[in-house]
Amino acid sequence: MGATENKAWESLDAGEQVRQLREMLFQSPSFSALLEGPEHRFVLTNPAYQQLIGHRDVIGLAVREAVPEVDGQGFFDLLDQVFATGEAFVGKDVAIVLQRTAGGPAETRYLDFVYQPIKDEAGGVTSIFVEGVDITDRHASEEALRQLNADLERQVIERAQGRGLTWKLSPDLLGALNSNGYFETANPAWESVLGWTEAEVVSMSIFDLLHPDDLEHTRAGFELTQVGQPALRFANRYRCKDGGYRWISWIGIPEDGYVYCTGRDITAERAAEVELAAAQEALRQSQKMEAIGQLTGGIAHDFNNLLTGIIGALDIVRRRMADNRLDEIPRFMDAASVSAQRAGELTHRLLAFARRQSLDIRPNDINRLVADMEDLLHRSLGEHIELECLLATKLWTAFTDANQFESAVLNLAINARDAMPDGGRLTIETTNLHLDAAFGAGPDSIDPGDYVVIGVSDTGCGMSADVVAQAIDPFFTTKPVGSGTGLGLSMVYGFAKQNRGHLRIYSEVGHGTTIKLYLPRALQQAVILKKRQREAPRGQGETILVVEDDATVRLILADVLEELGYDVVLASDARPAIPILQSDRRIDLMVSDVMLPHINGRKLAEIARASRPDLKVLFVTGYAENATFRGDFLEPGMDMLTKPFDLDALGAKVRAMIERSWREVATGA
Questions:
Q1: Which residue in 82, 348, 479, 632 has the fewest CB atoms around it within 10 Å?
Q2: Confidence check: pLDDT of 431 > 90
Q3: What phi and psi, each to the nearest 5 degrees, are found at residue 163?
Q4: Cα–Cα distances in Å, from 184 out to 180, 195, 250?
């Protein structure tokens, strides 16, 4: 289908799509049937299939009961084999004997067909889809053609000087191929299509003329013809006399020790197929660029607003300082800080949507996390919305990042609040759930297994099916301009998928919305992290090596650490840092960016530990693809802080790492 037809199809609801697919199946000239289970019971047949078997009532019957006369012809064994192995079977020009009328004579039909296994999520075969074409008439025509070609080619070999007009005038390549792979005869079309004379053709093996990439499959096809298997529409590339190649589609009929061949030039058709594929790829690229344009446009809009606040506030601060109006400076510094923090939140949301944020995934008590949020949720929802928390007893522990989970629940609660401008009720419910393969089937699948489910339900205005379909798209929002970024729900969805979980939306206009967050079950005890101090503790003269390629960030890190009482050594990247690490100088902690030029921070840590095996390492990163799961990225004695961060958080993390043992640093205890 073209782009217009695709859009029309996608605009149909699921029920209409199923109806149209069923209508297409029933109108198809190909016969189709669906056989379920190891007994191959008929679930569905179309009119063409009914016509093939004589309009019998077979629904619900096992195939051996429905068409008993087929027993012994090999078809039942093939069905058993496909069901057992899960491998499809394709039959070409296969004879079948059917009794198409009760008490009537047996009738031989010829079929092209496929037995296609249908598998469940675990890979087991549940049913077999049968589709094919009754080619009895074509078989008769091809048999007649084979006989005609055989007779013609025998005459050509016997009377080389008495070729008929068909041999001379045919635009297709004709010839008799012997068992050694040489054409003993060749018609004039060889010279008009490929440039080779008859004498040149018969002097060369076909394998000398083939494209190197076609040698293997052509040799296999040739060997089949030597055991009596005809070659039908067998395509390969033959070398022209000028050095180029042309695609030839062959029909080869073995007879009396020769393979009588006719080859049609399909180079133009192949070129058209390539051109069509290129056009389809160009369309996909165009759609991709349209999506990227929408995403980058949204990012640019929000970041430009935030940068305006930051740059404008700092500019005013300079003017106030020049005018010695220092009492007004704090207000504008606060404004710049707020805009900068919002910019940081925006990048975190983008990384969450892209499933590239750095997650500290541990076993967590979800009930405790929700209960600890109740005061914050009450303040965020306001007095006009009632909050109800239904927390399941004996709730399983779940794998998640506690901070990102709290952020996700808060986002869902704020969205629910905005959907209830006149008040209502917000319910947060937790429960244990085992998901089977059937639940996770579909394009947006989820692995079967045990999950902890967090449901956030509101009594608001609800969403239409069209809105639900776009709800997780970045920058999509139904809120007024300036009231939302359109990243909240996409961030929650990205977090869920990166957490190896899932998110589903259930909504009805006028009745409210329920969003369910599925987190994988953890069999370990929940880990409770210590809360950091509000003010960063001071150092005691320890030496910290800071490796950061951004000069501004390096300056700020050095200033705050020196202010906290540490001796700071600076390096702009790994190259000046390595000699320091390999020296005898005291280093109590290395603070390093992950994405450094030349050698990244993770590799630098490995080099450092070769000479300082007890060195503790704190990574600071804005984004690092390999660091999205901290447990996979960090070794004992390592930790991570995600940019942007406030300086008190940096000071607290540095002090905690210096004072704690390796095992405590690794577990975050």
A1: 632
A2: yes
A3: -65, 140
A4: 10, 17, 17
Token readout for 64 is 């051996």
| Residue in this structure with the two tokens 């070409």, named with its chain if needed | 92
User: How do residues 176-213 score in pLDDT, each as one tens digit?
Assistant: 999 888 998 888 999 999 999 988 998 888 899 999 99
Between residues 83 and 462, the one the model is more confident about: 83
User: Rounded CA gap, 645 and 640, in Å?
Assistant: 11
Residue with tokens 């969450």: 352
What is the torsion angle, in degrees rounded to the nearest 10, for the CA atoms of residue 72, residue 76, residue 77 and residue 81? 170
- Residue in this structure with the two tokens 């957490």, named with its chain if needed: 499
CA R_g for the chain: 36
Question: Residue 612 and residue 578: Cα distance in Å, rounded?
Answer: 11
Whole-prediction pTM value?
0.39
From the CB of residue 415, how many other CB atoms can be counted at a distance below 10 Å? 21
**pLDDT (tens digit per residue) in 394-418:** 999 998 888 778 878 888 888 888 8
* 304 dihedral zone (left: phi>0; alpha: psi -120 to 50; beta): alpha
Beta partners for residue 262, in sequence order: 174, 251
Q: Which two tokens stand for residue 280?
A: 């389809």
- Reduce the DSSP state of residue 258 to 3 states and report it: strand
* CA dihedral over 266, 268, 269, 273, signed as positive or negative: positive
Task: Note every long-range contact of 571-576, with CB atoms under 8 Å and residues 24 or more positions apart, other chains counting.
Answer: 571/545, 571/546, 571/547, 572/547, 572/548, 573/547, 573/549, 573/597, 573/598, 573/599, 574/547, 574/598, 574/599, 574/600, 574/601, 574/603, 574/604, 574/607, 575/599
Binning pLDDT at 50, 70 and 90, where does residue 300 land?
low
For the CA atoms of 382, 386, 387, 389, what is the dihedral angle to 10 degrees? 170
Please, which pLDDT band fits residue 350 given cuts at 50, 70 and 90? low
Q: Judge contact between 241 and 201, C-beta under 8 A.
A: no
φ, ψ dihedrals at 86, nearest 5° = 75, 10
Q: What is the DSSP letter of 523?
A: -
